[in-house]
Specification:
The chain has 251 residues and is an alpha/beta fold. Helix content is 29%, strand content 20%. An eight-stranded mixed beta sheet has the order 1-4-3-2-5-6-8-7. Helix 4 links the parallel strand 5 and strand 6. It is globular, with a radius of gyration of 17 Å.
C-alpha cells in the first residue's frame, strides 16, 4: 500500500489558511526558508528530538505529526508507528520511507486515522495559522478522537503575549494565542493540561542565534536561557481516562 494518502482531493477544506493560500503552501514555505535554513532546521530538530522530545514517546507507541510540513519532527522521533498529516504536497516528498503521510485537512484528520490509535500527537507552529478559534476547536476535537485514552498532545508555537507585534511578521499568522488561551481551548475540548511552559524555544529558526548541536543541548539544560530567549510556548495536554496511569517524563 502507498504510504501517501491524498484524501478528499476534490473538496479539501483549507485548514492552515484562507482561500487561495491552500494551494500555495509549497511555494510559500519554499520561499520562506532557503536551502541553508532547511539544513539548519534538520540539524536543530535532530538534537531537539534526541535531547528533549524523545522522552515523551512510549517505545512501542504511535506518533502523529500535526501539520508536519517538511517532517522535521516526525523524521527524527523514534516510534513504532509514525504518521504525518498536512495539506502541503511537499510533505510526502520530505517524509522518511516508513512515515505514513496523509494530505488531508487537520479539522477532519479523524476521517483518515482510527479512533484511539495515537499515543502522542505533536503540533509545532501550526495552530497560529488557523482561521480562528472555531477552527482550532475543530482540530482539537478531531485530535481527541484519534488519541488513545491517556494519550498526549504536545503544542509548540509562538506565545503572542511574549512575541507581541512580531507575531505578524509572517503574513499567514492569523490566530494569536498565549499559553493561557491555549490551555483554555484545550480545557473546552476535554483535554487536561499537564505541562505548560510560557517560554521554550526562540521565536523563529531564522534568528541569528547559533544552532550548533552542543549549544542547543546547553540551551535546553539551562532554564535561565529559555527565560531570556524563549518566545514559543510548550503546552502538553492529556486525553483523560478513568483508572489509567499517565505516562511521560517525570515532573
Amino acid at each position: 500500500m502507498d504510504r501517501t494518502a491524498d484524501q478528499g482531493r476534490g473538496h479539501l477544506t483549507p485548514t492552515l489558511a484562507v482561500g487561495a493560500l491552500e494551494g500555495e503552501l509549497d511555494r510559500l514555505y519554499a520561499g520562506r526558508f532557503s536551502r541553508r535554513d532547511r539544513l539548519e532546521k534538520v540539524r536543530l530538530w535532530r538534537v531537539l528530538c534526541r535531547s528533549f522530545f524523545d522522552r515523551y514517546v512510549p517505545a512501542d507507541g504511535s506518533v502523529l505529526d500535526v501539520g508536519a510540513g517538511y517532517c522535521d519532527f516526525i523524521n527524527h522521533i523514534a516510534a513504532a508507528r509514525r504518521v504525518a498529516v498536512d495539506l502541503n504536497p511537499d510533505t510526502a516528498l520530505a517524509a522518511a520511507d516508513d512515515v505514513e503521510v496523509y494530505r488531508h485537512p487537520l479539522e477532519r484528520l479523524d476521517d483518515v486515522l482510527e479512533p484511539d490509535s495515537i499515543d502522542l500527537a505533536f503540533a509545532s507552529n501550526v495552530f497560529e495559522h488557523l482561521r480562528g478559534p472555531d477552527a482550532l476547536l475543530r482540530v482539537l476535537a478531531a485530535l481527541r478522537v484519534v488519541l488513545r485514552p491517556g494519550g498526549r498532545l504536545m503544542i509548540m508555537q509562538p506565545n503572542a503575549r511574549i512575541v507581541g507585534g512580531a507575531f505578524y511578521d509572517f503574513f499567514d499568522h492569523t490566530l494569536p494565542l498565549s499559553e493561557k488561551g491555549m490551555a483554555e481551548a484545550l480545557g473546552v475540548t476535554g483535554f487536561e493540561v499537564v505541562e505548560c511552559r510560557a517560554r521554550f524555544l526562540p521565536y523563529t529558526t531564522k534568528s541569528r542565534l547559533p544552532k550548533w548541536p552542543w549549544l542547543v543541548r546547553l540551551y535546553l539544560a539551562l532554564p535561565p536561557a529559555r527565560w531570556l530567549f524563549g518566545k514559543q510556548m510548550l503546552v502538553v495536554a492529556r486525553k483523560p481516562a478513568d483508572g489509567d496511569r499517565p505516562w511521560g517524563p517525570p515532573a
